[in-house]
Amino acid sequence: MPDNEASLREQLAEQYKHVERIGLNELSSGNLSCRFGDKMLISPSGATADTIEPDAIVAVSLDGEWSGDRKPSSEWRMHAAIYLAHEKAQAVVHTHSDYCVALACQQLPLPGFHYLVGSFGGNDVPCVPYSTFGTQQLGDDASAALKGRSACLLGNHGMICRGSNLKSAVDLAHRLEIMCRQYVLTRQLGEPKLLTDDDWTDFFERARKVSYGKYI
């Protein structure tokens, strides 16, 4: 295979293992992908950190055509919908991390309780309604929620984010889990005071000046 494809497969397998090492996925939950020309490379169905290897990664067209011994993740439609709608997206990460799931199962967005919520492009991280896994409806809802945001929660399911490369997408997924954990902890003390519109205006002006964070 071409050198660039081999490199992407190695990166994807390594990042898949890393996502489990840092506790964002367990067993065969979640999936990762990256754009590859007019296709995507995605983790296979049923993959775990113990079993995934570069050769197991599946090349899939954005309309779902693939070949080989391994099936692509059942969530390929959600990844494809994001690539089709967001030209800058080069990688997509979907996890079932604990605190993201906790908010998602309440169908709660992550509000602007902390300035680092702005790391995802706005003053909140939205939560889309529940849809059955692997469906086009879930893909369409997630893709729409990522307009102006780099991440969203998936009702009664988990989270998904898009990045400019695999590492940045994994970092965003990790950051979202941290922020959801801190929000849940904050809620134990009562309702947090949210940042105001003026606070957000000041934050984004400052962030642009110092090139703080990644906004896509």
Provide an overview of this structure.
This protein is α+β, with helices and mostly antiparallel strands. It has a single domain (3-209), classed as Class II aldolase/adducin N-terminal domain (L-fuculose-1-phosphate Aldolase), CATH 3.40.225.10. The chain has 6 helices and 7 strands. A 7-stranded mixed β-sheet has the order 3-2-1-4-7-6-5, with helices on both faces. α2 runs parallel beside α4 (136-145) and α3 (98-104) crosses α5. It is globular and about 50 Å long. The mean pLDDT is 95.
Short descriptors:
216 residues, alpha+beta, L-fuculose-1-phosphate Aldolase, 6 helices, 7 strands, 14% strand, globular
Summarize the model shown.
The protein has 216 residues and is α+β, with helices and mostly antiparallel strands.
Class inferred from helices and paired strands: alpha+beta
What is the element string, with H for helices and E for strands? HEEEHEHEHEEHH
How many discrete structural domains? 1
Mean pLDDT: 95
Q: Indicate the radius of gyration in whole angstroms.
A: 17 Å
**Adjacency order of strands in the biggest sheet:** 3-2-1-4-7-6-5
CATH C-level class is Alpha Beta
Number of helical segments with 4 or more residues: 6
Q: Which outline best applies? A: globular
Distance, first to last CA: 30 Å
Task: Give the total of beta strands.
Answer: 7
Task: Report on the biggest sheet.
Answer: 7 strands, mixed
**Residue share in helices?**
25-40%
Tell me the quaternary state.
single chain
Question: Architecture, according to CATH?
Answer: 3-Layer(aba) Sandwich
Strand content: 5-15%
CATH topology: L-fuculose-1-phosphate Aldolase
In the predicted model, the low-confidence regions spanning at least 5 consecutive residues are: none
